[in-house]
Amino acid sequence: MRLALLGCGTVGAEVVRLLNEQSADLAARIGAPLEIAGIAVRRLGRDRGDLPVDPGLFTTDALGLIKRDDVDVVVEVIGGIEPARGWLVEALRAGKSVVTANKALLAEDGGALHDAAAEGGGDLYYEASVAGAIPLLRPLRESLHGDRITQVTGIVNGTTNFILSAMHATGAGFAEALEEATELGYAEADPTADVEGFDAAAKAAILASLAFHTRVGAADVHREGITEVTAADMASAKAMGCTIKLLCIAARGADGQGRETVSVRVHPAMIPLTHPLASVGDAFNAVFVEAEAAGQLMFYGRGAGGAPTASAVLGDVVAVARNRLAGVRVASESAYAALPVRPMGEALTRYHISLDVADRPGVLEAVAGVFARHDVSIATVRQGPSGGGNGDAVLVIVTHVAPDAALAATVQELRGLDIVRSVASVLRVEGGL
Ligand code: NDP
Ligand code: HSE
To answer: What is the model's pTM?
Structure first.
């Protein structure tokens, strides 16, 4: 079984290392030896340290490598949309099996890859694309196929989890915690994809597609990052017995006519410290799956890093290699349900709102009136002195579940009230309170 490795960076180099270290075991598990036919990279002259591989295998001609007749499996760990998309479509159409860790591509145009796999008859596996080492996609697409998944809630970005965990532990602000994450090598030089939620949104799209048998792309995911989360937000969350996490939430629901829909969103949210996801610290990932018959399932582990991600890549390589030897193909996509994706405004959620208000008669009534006008029911209200010594008060309001659009309109109207000095913090609340 011969494989073409596209990319030899953080993940690719570990794939090479593990392939080398475990070659005898892998051959025994697959039923045939696994050999690297070639490794496509961008810079031939790059120092690759003591990588245990013949330097003659490196090439910059990825397409030429993919097209070789002696290549059975293409492993893509380059990343990005192009040229990866064109190369993988070419490989799949030619009947090769593909293993990829490329969440951005799968979320952008997974359909093109699945169509090409169906056309060529090879497998398309991508376990490493979501939550790194955690076996999650295979359970969703195989083990749970006899069940009906109702919701997937996850922490799927390690960088932001590290930052938010640091903010919770030390009271640091976002910028300070990001600096620490960068110094320790958790955050990339350009952290935009992580802190603005793009990385988590791509993973959310992949999870939703598998969970709900529906093609969901990155553009279908409501996305908010963590750059606006302040030390005051975290302090407010802690005062309520909560913490703040960047959550990806994919849920079944229904529209106004009772037709089944899905909603997929990524945003920071307050969760109670008793919630299973609250204790997921550092750069770890965890995903909580709820299914009708299975009940609640939790998946936890390392979501990034060379070796953990290479572990998932190699698991896929073994699976597709076995399939090829057996002459079978596993349908990688199940999109028969084709459920419509509900806009964020219709998603049902809860808000925690902290207001600085004038402390005088009628203020509570005026504030409550705004909620009532938007048909948003208040669950709890807490009032305390503002701490500014100016006679103002702080009102902390937690709502019941309501459509997100109604909650957002409530906050907008509150901002316009004279008696509201400022809307200090607005956070969604998940997982009960
Ligand atoms: P790196 O940037 O470390 O490595 C990218 C590799 O691709 C390099 O070897 C580079 O070549 C090669 N490459 C880039 N452009 C081209 C090109 N045009 N032609 C040929 N080769 C090219 O990326 P990572 O290993 O971190 O990530 C790879 C994939 O895995 C991405 O899709 C990422 O999202 C995903 N992933 C990564 C995780 C992680 O923890 N790093 C976790 C989960 C998924 P050269 O070496 O010459 O520069
Ligand atoms: N940047 C990602 C993270 C890597 O922080 O989780 C894994 O996809």
So the answer is: 0.96
Q: What is the pLDDT of residues 327-376, one digit of tens each?
A: 998 877 999 999 999 999 999 999 999 999 999 999 999 999 999 999 99
Q: Shortest CA distance to 1 belongs to which of 122, 141, 134? A: 122
How many angstroms does the Cα of residue 231 sit away from the middle of ligand 1?
A: 34
Q: Which two tokens stand for residue 136?
A: 């999650």
Q: Which domains does the chain have, with CATH numbers?
A: 2-132+306-326 (3.40.50.720), 138-302 (3.30.360.10), 345-429 (3.30.70.260)
Q: How far is the CA of 405 from the CAs of 219, 257, 269, in angstroms?
A: 19, 18, 16
DSSP calls for 68-114 = -TT--EEEE---SSTTHHHHHHHHHHTT-EEEE--HHHHHHHHHHHH
The verdict on the CB of residue 360 being under 6 Å from ligand 1 is: no
Sign of CA dihedral 280, 286, 292, 295: negative
- Residues 122-153 have pLDDT tens digits of 999 999 999 999 999 999 999 999 999 999 99
Distance 12 CA to ligand 1 centre (A): 7
Q: Name the closest ligand to CA 63.
A: 1
Distance CA 171, CA 37 (A): 51
**Amino acid at the residue 32:** A
